[in-house]
């Protein structure tokens, strides 16, 4: 219990520390005196533009998107009863990628405004197809996972086809979006993302009991009065809405939904009443830190945040697989 409190306190204290670092660090460093000048109104126009128009909305966008991905990952792992699950296992990310690719390649420059909507629609349609095809007098986690992987592979093949035959300029735009980044964040995009997330995140917080029951298996959940198929469908819909909104705003950012719930369980335990907010906190910290590294490690050049999360997530996945192998022995 004491170690959990220490971890939670460390995570909470890391939020303002990372936010401050995100405002100060970059290709042009902002001093503490310049930050203080923002409070008394004496800051220069350049400082106001860098901090208030560029870095602050970008840091808050990264934190918000990371929170959403952490929550979506916690839902996916509970619904699938698989500690290696994340929204991508349902084919959500692949569906969003294919829809975004069709808009980028098919509509050229005019598709930029439709890209967020296309990503959200693609994620939603993919989740719908997965659930419909997995229905056989009810659903099961195994069928959903297998069909999600199959449809995700099909959508991935479609993206590969677009990359192979589209114009070079369109392919470059598509690859940058697929890598995932918050470099284009502004106050309008942040407000839109928050507006999309309010309802599904609130519903996810209200569904903690259903998540706890599903984690123990369909039979136990049904014996305790839960309508398993309906509950699973609604939770998948919530996961899709949350991750789809994030993909629409930031592109494809992987592994946050895998890592955040595992770290959160060390802080808050397995009960979802605490796990959901803890996963949100850890996910927000991870993505904000990843974006900070992405835009400072090679400044003035900037890496997509999704590359940094992949560099962290791939070893973490290997660690999880090794731990499960050791436990099995």
TrEMBL record:
<feature type="transmembrane region" description="Helical">
    <location>
        <begin position="301"/>
        <end position="322"/>
    </location>
</feature>
<dbReference type="Pfam" id="PF01032">
    <property type="entry name" value="FecCD"/>
</dbReference>
<dbReference type="GO" id="GO:0022857">
    <property type="term" value="F:transmembrane transporter activity"/>
</dbReference>
<dbReference type="GO" id="GO:0033214">
    <property type="term" value="P:siderophore-iron import into cell"/>
</dbReference>
<dbReference type="InterPro" id="IPR037294">
    <property type="entry name" value="ABC_BtuC-like"/>
</dbReference>
<protein>
    <submittedName>
        <fullName>Iron complex transport system permease protein</fullName>
    </submittedName>
</protein>
<comment type="similarity">
    <text>Belongs to the binding-protein-dependent transport system permease family. FecCD subfamily.</text>
</comment>
<keyword id="KW-0812">Transmembrane</keyword>
<feature type="transmembrane region" description="Helical">
    <location>
        <begin position="56"/>
        <end position="76"/>
    </location>
</feature>
<feature type="transmembrane region" description="Helical">
    <location>
        <begin position="88"/>
        <end position="107"/>
    </location>
</feature>
<keyword id="KW-0813">Transport</keyword>
<keyword id="KW-0472">Membrane</keyword>
<dbReference type="GO" id="GO:0005886">
    <property type="term" value="C:plasma membrane"/>
</dbReference>
<feature type="transmembrane region" description="Helical">
    <location>
        <begin position="187"/>
        <end position="207"/>
    </location>
</feature>
<feature type="transmembrane region" description="Helical">
    <location>
        <begin position="113"/>
        <end position="133"/>
    </location>
</feature>
<feature type="transmembrane region" description="Helical">
    <location>
        <begin position="234"/>
        <end position="263"/>
    </location>
</feature>
<keyword id="KW-1133">Transmembrane helix</keyword>
<keyword id="KW-1003">Cell membrane</keyword>
<feature type="transmembrane region" description="Helical">
    <location>
        <begin position="145"/>
        <end position="167"/>
    </location>
</feature>
<dbReference type="InterPro" id="IPR000522">
    <property type="entry name" value="ABC_transptr_permease_BtuC"/>
</dbReference>
